[in-house]
Amino acid sequence: MPSPVPSISISTVVELVNEWATVPQEVSLHPWAGYPDADNHARAELRQVWPQELPQPGDEMIVGAVDRIHTVFSATWPTDVASALTGLVSELRISPMVTSRNDEVQTGWSVPDQSDLLTVTLAVSLLDHLKIEPTSRLGICESSSCADILVDHSPTRSKHYCSDRCRTRERVRDHRARNTSS
């Protein structure tokens, strides 16, 4: 029987990918400090929505899921992102699910294989976000020493960096490069 798929906030998707994905750890200039503690916000939100009959996702499961989702963010916006997300939905065999409860019809998603539930949860959360905010751009930080993902909600969809810290680091690097060549 298909399993219902929980959904999490887009900010939690971003936090999970940025804290657990392999690529951001490899690109970062800062020494890796390990995975976040059990009281981390993203873990807490996962605990709230995760089916009680299943074991909570461990670090290894989270890494596997977020590495697959990172590829969606690294695709070119919007066409390749749409293709990457469509391919993931197809590969994971995510399907719509309609149920009735308390005199109302509810819609959601289901997946045939519970071993993919975390990856599916992340993908469905992206789908849900894009349904509500179709113009928010998904991308990767353009800093040379960062590969964190970002969700660009700006009106011009022109955000290049995941944080002010990365933006400042790149501006300082560019400024120093200009002054050195003078």
Give an account of the 3D structure.
With 182 residues, the chain is α+β, with helices and mostly antiparallel strands. The protein has helices spanning 10-20, 22-27, 41-49, 59-74, 79-92, 117-132, 164-181, and strands spanning 3-4, 95-101, 104-111, 137-140, 149-152. A three-stranded antiparallel sheet has the order 1-3-2, with helices on one face. It has a two-stranded antiparallel ribbon with strand order 4-5. Strand 4 and strand 5 form a beta hairpin. Helix 1 packs across helix 3 (41-49), helix 1 crosses helix 4 (59-74) and helix 5 (79-92) packs antiparallel against helix 6 (117-132). It starts with a strand and ends with a helix.
Low-pLDDT parts are none
End-to-end distance? 68 Å
Largest sheet: 3 strands, antiparallel
Would you count the extended β strands for me? 5
Radius of gyration: 18 Å
Pairing-aware structural class of the strands and helices? alpha+beta
**Element order, helices and strands?**
EHHHHHEEHEEH
Number of helices: 7
Helix content: 40-55%
* Shape field: globular
Overall pLDDT metric = 93
